[in-house]
Write a structure and sequence with these properties.
This protein is of the alpha+beta class. The protein contains twelve helices and 20 strands. It folds into two domains: about 180 residues, 2-Layer Sandwich (Endonuclease, Chain A), CATH 3.30.870.10; about 170 residues, Endonuclease Chain A (Endonuclease, Chain A). It starts with a strand and ends in a 9-residue tail after the last strand.
């Protein structure tokens, strides 16, 4: 699939007055309030849009907006048709939610909303290659981060960045439009997408001198360990779950954590499950240029090589300092005691997972069509 690259605009988003952090508990209500007063457009791109309390409330606001003549356009990954509330859609426990989701998309379409699905599922064979972006544009305001539209995602610790900077909002709206047309591009600027997410991440971590902090529930893999081992920052911190909700990651964690601790990396976690993804570098007065990277990426090789992602680079010192104080307010020590046997087993699993993801990213992901037919499970009957 051909990739076109946008020109490289300034990397400096010195726009603290035009940005704010919205947490998971506030975002759903804030978004609905925005949609309720929208006059021109509502663009929403997510991987998950469930027909639960959160999804149905937003859908109703979108239907009403479309009725007022507002342009309403949705980009939904095919994941939404196959996994509901983190549960396979075929399970009996989510059949009512699956029916509600199907009905919800039908009502949105009949109301005049344009609903487009991304990245085909192909009976699960392509399940690991997703369009993982989360972009919300309402008139001249945009949101970017890790929050999908679902009750369980709203319940996790997470955040979106609210943006009113005209250049950033326009860039996100244009990226949305290109995806909607079936184009896959990589942008390098304050807004970064796809292949530039990995290179930006590596640059921020490798250039850090004083401190680098990485937060993600799914970043811990062999590639990340090697990146942190090479980092010359005097302090390196990884925020990750004490117990991951993916079995493959749980199998590799003991070995990878052992290597990180041996390399002098500090491991910490939040007291509850989190979905926050950010990289913070040199946030103090003695470091190099302050940088904060936020967005949809999990910062692992799977995220970099197999998914389509979006991020934002922020360099405003005041904004970064406020973000740091919020993000590090209640981290706790993460205990990663392992036995030699677990480390040996984890070594094999870590290398096998790394090789498999690398192969998937090199051979399969570039050939996955950006758009898909409406999933059969979401077609109205």
């Amino acid at each position: 699939m051909p990739t076109d690259s946008a020109p490289n605009p300034t990397r400096d988003t010195r726009s603290a007055p035009t940005m704010g952090v919205i947490d998971n508990q506030s975002f759903g209500g804030r978004l609905i309030d925005r949609v309720a007063t929208a006059e021109d457009r509502v663009l929403i791109q997510v991987m998950t849009f469930d027909g639960d309390t959160a999804g149905l409330a937003l859908a109703q606001a979108l239907i009403e907006a479309a009725g007022r003549g507002v342009t309403v356009e949705l980009l939904i990954d095919c994941y939404a048709a196959h996994v509901l509330s983190d549960t396979p859609a075929r399970r009996a426990s989510v059949q009512a939610e699956a029916a509600a989701t199907r009905d919800m998309f039908g009502r949105l379409t009949r109301a005049g909303a344009a609903v487009t699905f991304t990245n085909p599922w192909l009976a699960g064979l392509l399940a690991a290659t997703r369009n993982h972006k989360k972009i919300f544009v309402v008139d001249d305001v945009a949101y970017l981060g890790g929050i999908n539209v679902s009750d369980h995602n709203y319940a996790w610790r997470d955040f979106n960045i609210e943006i009113t900077d005209p250049t950033v909002v326009a860039t996100l709206a244009e990226d949305f439009a290109r995806t909607q047309r079936g184009e896959r591009r990589s942008i390098d600027g304050p807004v970064i997408t796809n292949r530039f997410v990995e290179s930006t991440f590596e640059s921020i971590v490798s250039d850090a001198k004083q401190r680098v902090i990485i937060s993600s529930p799914y970043a811990l893999d062999l590639a990340l360990v090697r990146t942190l081992e090479r980092s010359r920052a005097s302090e390196r911190i990884l925020i990750s779950p004490e117990v991951n909700n993916f079995a493959a990651i749980r199998a590799t964690d003991p070995y990878l954590r052992h290597r990180l601790v041996r390399a002098g990396v500090k491991l910490v976690t939040y007291p509850d499950f989190f979905h926050e993804k950010f990289v913070l570098a040199d946030d103090g007065p003695e470091g190099g240029p302050t940088k904060l990277l936020v967005g949809s990426s999990n910062f692992g090789r799977h995220s970099f090589r197999c998914n389509e992602e979006v991020g934002l680079v922020i360099t405003d010192p005041a904004f970064v300092a406020a973000f740091r104080d919020r993000a590090l307010g209640d981290v706790e020590p993460l205990h990663s005691v392992t036995t030699p046997g677990q480390r040996a087993a984890g070594l094999v699993a870590a290398h096998a997972l790394h090789a498999g993801v690398s192969l998937l990213g090199a051979v399969v992901a570039p050939r996955v069509p950006p758009l898909a037919h409406q999933p059969r499970s979401l077609r109205t009957r």
